[in-house]
Amino acid sequence: MSTQADTHTDNAAYYIPEPSRWPIIAVFGMFMLFFGLVLSINKMSLAGSLIMVTGFAVLAHLMHGWFGAVIDENLSGKYNGQVDRSFRQGMFWFITSEAAFFVTFFGCLFYLRNITLPWLGGDGQLATSNILWEGFQYNWPLLNLPDADTTKYVPAKEAMGPWGLPLLNTIILLSSGVTLTWAHWGLKKGNNTQLVRGLIMTITLGTIFFFVQGYEYWHAHHAMDLTLNSGVYGSTFYMLTGFHGLHVTIGTIMLIVIAVRSARHHFTEHNHFAFEAVAWYWHFVDVVWIALFIFVYWL
Amino acid sequence: MSVATTHDHHHDHHGPPRGWQRWVYSTNHKDIGTMYLFFALFMLFFGGAMAMYIRAELFMPGVQLASPDFYNNMVTDHALVMVFGMVMPAAAGMANWMIPMMIGAPDMALPRLNNLSFWLLPAAAILLMLSIVAPYIFPDGGTPVNTGWTLLPPLSVQNGIGMDFTIFAIHTLGVSSILASINIVTTILNMRAPGMTMMKMPLFVWAWFFTALLLIAVMPVLAGAVTMLLFDRHFGTSFFDAAGGGDPILFQHLFWFFGHPEVYVLLLPSIGVLGLVIPTFARKPLFGYKALVYGMGVLAALGMVVWAHHQYTIGMSLVATNYFMIGTILISIPVGLMLMNFIFTMWRGSMTFETPMLFGIAIILMFSFAGVTGVMLAVVPADMQYHDTMFVVAHFHYALIPGAVFGLYAGVFYWLPKWTGHMYNERLGQIFFWWTTISFNLTFFPQHFSGLAGMPRRIVDYSIQYTEFNMISSIGGFLFGLSHLLFLFIIIQTIRGGAKAPAKPWEGSQIGTPGLEWTLPSPPPFHSFTEAPVIK
Amino acid sequence: MLPRRDKCLSALFITGGAWLFSSMAHAAYEYNLTPPASTLTQEIFDLHMLTTIVGTIIMALVTGMIIYALINFRHAKGAIPDQEFHNGWFGRWAWVLVPVIVLSIDLTIASSASSTLNSVESHDKADVTVKVIGSQWKWTYEYMDDDIKIVSNLKKLEPTDPLYLRDVDDPLVLPTGKRVRFLLTSSDVLHNWGIAEIVPKKINIPGYINETWTHITKEGTYRGQCYENCGTGHAFMPAVVRAVSPTEYEQWKVARKAQQAQAAAEASADKVWAKAELMAKGEEVYTKNCLACHQANGQGLPGVFPALAGSKIANNTAALADHIAIVVKGKAGTAMAAWGPQLNDLDIAAVVTYERNAWGNTAGELVQPKDIKAAR
Fold it and tell me: Which cofactors are reported in the record for this sequence (chain C) (predicted)?
């Protein structure tokens, strides 16, 4: 029989939740979302959108309920150190899978720029491909497409440069990382005011980033003709920045939740997994942005 | 090694909840494991029915039963159902049941997440079934999904609404496996009983550890790839269209970057089962435990960097082709090491031949054969002849049916006594073994010949020179399908009754398999280890 | 040649009994890779035999070890397990020994494969260059040095015919004893032009060109198929090459060019065609190019390929221009290809006329080549 003080040995203290209705609700919401999405992109937009919105509502309810349950359990002291480690490791592996998701799109960008387009332009082993696309010259950003006929794809008029809004956004996002770390210091010191202030600053910066990015999209669409239809330059640009933007949005929502919880004194120096999970996520989003800035905007 | 504490006796302070809520709301690793296993069993018959249709259509030249598109839709969904609906859930079910018991944990690390990972599967299955019927029930449904499970554009861009359902079914399946994998890795890293060091874990746990890591790394890649496909289909992007500067081959790279590790995702859990079954029935410890663990690690790592051997014919540079060829051939090193270690485990042992052991031996033989044809296929110039012929089909069915499915059967027979508390009918089990093994070979061995003679994959109709091989193959296929009714019967029979199983149903249980599952009674209590066992 | 039933029985015997062995090493070609008919495929064939033989030896060893173990280490025989076996010298060194042995086998195979691969990829020099275009579901061959174009469609035969799904109306003709370079591409989805006797496969990718080559050593007709799933008609697009002597090839080229010139002259002539002529010509063009999708009776495949019989466009005089435009330029977002670049004015005029008058369609106009010229 174990007599060690380490909680690791005490299986009875490991909190096994009671049967829960939240997972099945999550499944239901996700199914509705996907089912509705398929209908709405296949000429059944009304029915599809309704189902999709219902799915969203179910998922919102779910997030509120499931996370609420976890918060209650946490506050009532049901979690020991081992449970906390499970959460941390779970979050770590989740972010790892997210990283793999972004690596996919970066991988595509590299493949297209370094292998596909040179070949189409007449370099390398598949040089002969250029007899199909006479006159195609490969440059990145891709402002002239292999297919000169513009019925299907319309090239962008100019490329998105890195030194205007993107640079501003880089500064904003990097400073948000700093303010978040400052909030973390506050938390570690037990200074709740610093924690809340740091979080509010981070949220503000995240929101500004969001709107700047929105303006940039608007500008790209209207002034530069850079759209999803602009060949692979537009495709990769929007795919990468779009999924990043989505993650910023989710991160900001998570930060808002954490800020509210901080204001209610939910976190202590020793028990603040939720804060750290969100902080990791936010830093991850930061790192992705730096890669984006370098490979999508700059190089 | 000895186990100081097994389990305490006040574990039943709350038993399982009653009624449907027990299953739908479950947070218990055994109940969720059971659901995974039953789901897999259902999908086995669902995917099997598709295979029966395929073999019936190919029985004779000429298109007899349904349209070519329906045929290719069945080919596509047979693969998706068997890979994502059958093998992976069955392996995940075993992981759920066994890993916490083997490492002395009270449950999985994140029980509610565990429930979510399971229940996403039925949702994905419904989406997949919708993808089959959608082209017929929705206006402008377009072509059914006729691409094969690789979903290669531009054909998949041409497909109708069914492809969208397939894409989202894959998204759902992907979320499910990523969440399950996160849970399993966390459980293995964080929930081991004191003294259960990593290098004491049963091989099955190690196998699932690498499997889960692979899934976390590559499942998002597939999700990304099908997302891009969705955008190409509906939102005007040109990732896979040369006119806009894209490349259909890009999708192949992404798909196989996922797809090749996926093969190891299917194989590794079964190799883990083998690592328990063979020592048990040879009554001596596993030969080269460390080598097997590292071998699996090397296999997983190599598996991540050789994907393009599925696409030698795409026209890569000479350097890339040579790299992928040599990398692929090198995979024979960890695989050969594993198979040899299993043979050496039998060597100078004292073997009896219960059903799991029979499957184990058959796996070693037939999987070696798949390895040999695998090396043949890895050789680029020769592969340019075999590419997309039935030879490939024969090869990967030899790899996946013995390598993955038979391993799961071995696991089922090995653990049925533990799960149900009853011994299965050994005689029926052995009949099932001989029936499946012989009919399996009858089905797929001739496909090597039709493939070498040039018969392509994924064709609804063939010229008469391939008739004999296909007839034999179809007859074998029907027998193979039929044998699974016996499998179902054995399982139901064992659940309903039979000789009472002791805590250690096998004489050799726990020789060299240091797991803690045998310290629990059969069937184990609802909550396994409410107090952690200590391993010295 | 054995009668079919005996062949069936013998195949059953071999497959049923012999899965332990790698039976592909059997001498009978029916069980082995297609016999090669070019220098390159011969080289590949030898490589295939090397890996097959190595594989067979490995399988024999593994099987032998397992059988030995099964006989000698049985509980029923009273075998006593050696609990320390894995701790002996062999247990300590097996993890080095096995990989070293496997690695040496691997390197043997890889080095041999690498040199063959170099031959496969040295496709630059060529006496004849042919562009092979896959489309749903036929092959088009363009001789790059001569102005010759061949469209190769499935020849419809009964499922009992020895050439069922193996024959085309117009095969590719190639000379023996010369280096032939193939530029593979596609007009719609992925295809794979594969004829195992003469050429290692590369896939046909839309928008890209893949290369492969051959040097045919024996005259004869070589038959292959499409080896990359291309949808509904994937099983129905055989690839056939007729390999002839260089002199016969030259003669064929001259005759073929004359024939093409005549057809072109006919099409560009300002002649006004009569309905019967157009209908006859149109049916021919339709059968060759349109039938695979829209079917012989013009009914299409519901939900996949639209019906032409009774369609609005083909029955409404006002929609004639639309009809011509769809045939010439294709229809975006569907499988309908642009036929303008592939067919001449006369062919398109004829097929449009045919579609508007056949199967009970009532639009009734005659379309002349000059109308098509105007619409291009």
Answer: Cu cation
